[in-house]
Design a protein that fits this description.
With about 425 residues, the protein is α+β, with helices and mostly antiparallel strands. It is built from eleven helices and 19 strands. It has two domains: about 280 residues, 3-Layer(aba) Sandwich (Aminopeptidase); about 120 residues, 2-Layer Sandwich (Alpha-Beta Plaits). It starts with 8 loop residues before the first helix and ends in a 9-residue tail after the last helix.
């Protein structure tokens, strides 16, 4: 049975264990928070409309500017202060509290995995929305706007300040460049707590999965497939490497994964390629295990070149180069920390299952810097993520919007020290 959803600032204080003084909250504050909760519930259809609107603006890798411009306008219309672009293209808006600190960052990423030219029209049938990126992360962006709009429409006064950020470069080879710049340049030294609103569902991510990504390039002299037969072949060396990598057995605890995602090179079926390459993704939440997998892959690549050269033993010996094209740090926010426990408590009262988990999100960067950070799902249910058949079921999605609102209010107040 779902519990009652009405919550006041005083109730938040009790639930999250925040030390309270008589000046922390007033009846007017509490009334405004209750009004904000009612408002965010009654305007969920507006949030879904924003989600669809944003999704129909393309945001392919490294080309997020058009969607960023729409987010800038939305955040400005929501009443935020100093809405602007930073150096890398993030959109930032600010909402002052009674005090400058604590300063909470709510972030949602702008980019998708889909290339330029992908059809992004959203189709709706009842509660089901379909379109590339509709769940990851147009849902997160829409919830970000909804929180800002609701706080200002209901004149909620928070204790600390809140910065709202729509970030670039979270997906793929973006390598968290938006979150990196946000935390190390734009808001450097001003962030006390960080929440990434990413994707759908009810999850709370307190463990950041690290990743290393390489573009491995094999080079040789190339030549005619018949006249120059016997020369070492970059494509064949690549094949040796990928086959050996596929036979690795990484541990399941801690979880370690690998994936060869792209392969390319060569000019013609009847030409020995001068160059062949593959891109590989290595992941784990445990840096030691990630290091071990990294070393194994590097050894396999070198061995593949040596074997291909030895096999033919003629002119045109191969070389190989592994360029790191992505490096996401692993990280963790202790499940006993005030930020995590606040999110768990608020999830419970909004009727959501407070399940902790691990993922790779913008929150990784905050975790690496020692900033208490989590990522949360934005409600509803997504499917087909990172495919052109991506879908979002809005059934019960308002719980995700409400959780983000309540969490923004709670985290902008005083919490116990983060060291458990």
């Amino acid at each position: 049975m779902r519990t009652a959803l009405t919550i006041t600032l005083a109730t938040l204080v009790v639930m999250t264990g925040v030390a309270r003084t008589p000046t922390d909250t007033t009846p007017r504050d509490e009334a405004r928070v209750e009004a904000a909760v009612r408002s965010v519930r009654s305007t969920e259809e507006m949030t879904i409309a924003d989600q669809m609107r944003l999704c129909e603006v393309p945001a392919p890798p490294f080309s997020e500017r058009a969607r960023a411009a729409v987010m800038r306008d939305m955040l400005s219309a929501a009443g935020l202060n100093n809405v602007r672009f930073d150096r890398v293209g993030n959109v930032i808006g600010e909402r002052p509290g009674r005090s400058a600190r604590p300063n909470v960052v709510l972030a949602a990423h702008l980019d998708t995995v889909f290339p330029q030219g992908t059809t992004v029209k959203v189709r709706r049938a009842g509660t089901i929305l379909r379109g590339p990126g509709i769940a990851d992360n147009c849902r997160g962006l829409a919830v970000l706007v909804a929180v800002a709009r609701t706080l200002n429409a209901t004149a909620v006064q928070t204790e600390g300040s809140i910065a709202f950020a729509a970030t670039v470069g979270e997906e793929g080879l973006g390598d968290l460049r938006g979150a990196r710049a946000l935390l190390s340049e734009t808001l450097k030294g001003r962030v006390d707590r960080f929440v990434a609103i990413d994707g759908t569902g009810e999850s709370i991510t307190n463990i950041g999965v690290g990743s290393r990504r390489y573009r491995v390039t094999f080079r040789g002299s190339g030549g005619h497939s018949y006249n120059n037969f016997g020369r070492a072949n970059p494509a064949q060396a690549l094949g040796r490497a990928v086959a050996r990598i596929s036979e690795l057995h990484p541990p399941s605890t801690p979880k370690v994964t690998f994936n060869v995602g792209r392969i390319g090179g060569g000019t013609s079926v009847n030409a020995i390629p001068a160059e062949s390459w593959f891109e590989i993704d290595l992941r784990s939440a445990d840096e030691v295990s990630l290091d071990a997998l990294d070393r194994s892959v590097q050894d396999i690549v070198k061995e593949a070149v040596a074997r291909e050269n030895a096999r033919w033993n003629q002119n045109g010996a191969l070389t190989v180069r592994a360029d790191r094209v992505g490096d996401r740090p692993a990280g963790k926010t202790d499940q006993r920390s005030a930020v995590v426990q606040t999110a768990v408590s608020i999830s419970s009262i909004t009727g959501m299952r407070a399940r902790l988990g691990e993922a790779s999100t913008d929150a990784n960067m905050a975790m690496q810097l020692g900033i208490p950070a989590i990522a949360i799902g934005a409600g509803g249910r997504g499917s087909g993520s990172h495919t052109i058949n991506e879908a979002f079921d809005s059934t019960g999605s308002v719980r995700g919007t409400e959780r983000a609102l309540r969490l923004a209010i709670a985290l902008s107040g005083r919490l116990p020290p983060e060291s458990p």
